[in-house]
């Protein structure tokens, strides 16, 4: 296996295609750094970037099935409204359509649910990834690339100026 690489890139992520809604940006003034080859990124994203060199531009679409998948209807569930009671008081600010609420599954693993409907006794929540069902359009430029250091590989993330961040 090749040694993981660290890429610094500027990019724009849009939903669907080059005309879709902007989801995320990392301009040249504040680029993103990623460690490739350690399984933390969408595989097809890595495949499209890994052979590029400094200064090279990219523009590609990752179909939803190769990104975050299709919307799973089983991940849209109703939960009892009383789980939003904290210290005997219903936390009304959490019960807002569109709000993403940090929660835990039965094993204590963190997950995020988006409030999509509020009923008298239940709250309908969507636990799909926010980009499920969306094709992802990436465009941008490689600012730099280098081999990851042994320390970065050991920790599983990029170190900037020799420090963890």
Description:
The protein is mainly beta and 165 residues long. It has two domains: 5-68 and 132-164, Roll (Chitinase A, domain 3), CATH 3.10.50.40; 73-126, Beta Barrel (Thrombin, subunit H), CATH 2.40.10. It has helices spanning 43-49, 150-155; strands at residues 5-15, 22-26, 32-36, 57-62, 76-80, 85-86, 89-90, 100-104, 110-118, 122-126, 136-147, 159-160, 163-164. The strands form four sheets. Strands 1, 2, 3, 4 and 11 form a five-stranded antiparallel sheet that branches. Strands 5-10-9-8 form a four-stranded antiparallel sheet, with no helix packed on it. It has a two-stranded antiparallel sheet with strand order 6-7. The longest helix is centred in the first third of the chain and has 7 residues, at 43-49. The radius of gyration is 20 Å and the shape is elongated. The relative contact order is 0.27. The mean pLDDT is 89.
């Amino acid at each position: 296996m090749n040694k993981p690489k660290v890429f610094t890139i500027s990019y724009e992520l849009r939903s669907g295609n080059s005309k879709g809604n902007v989801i995320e940006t990392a301009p040249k003034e504040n680029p993103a750094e990623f460690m490739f080859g350690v399984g933390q990124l969408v595989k097809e994203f890595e495949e499209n970037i890994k052979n590029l060199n400094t200064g090279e531009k990219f523009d590609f679409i990752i179909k939803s099935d190769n990104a975050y998948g299709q919307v799973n209807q089983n991940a849209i569930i109703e939960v009892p409204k009383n789980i939003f009671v904290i210290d005997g008081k219903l936390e009304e600010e959490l019960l807002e359509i569109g709000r993403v609420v940090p929660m835990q599954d039965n094993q204590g693993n963190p997950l995020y649910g988006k409030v999509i409907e509020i009923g008298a006794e239940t709250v309908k929540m969507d636990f799909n990834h926010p980009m499920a069902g969306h094709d992802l359009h990436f465009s941008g430029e490689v600012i730099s690339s280098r081999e990851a250091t042994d320390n970065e590989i050991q920790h599983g993330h990029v170190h900037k100026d020799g420090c963890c961040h």
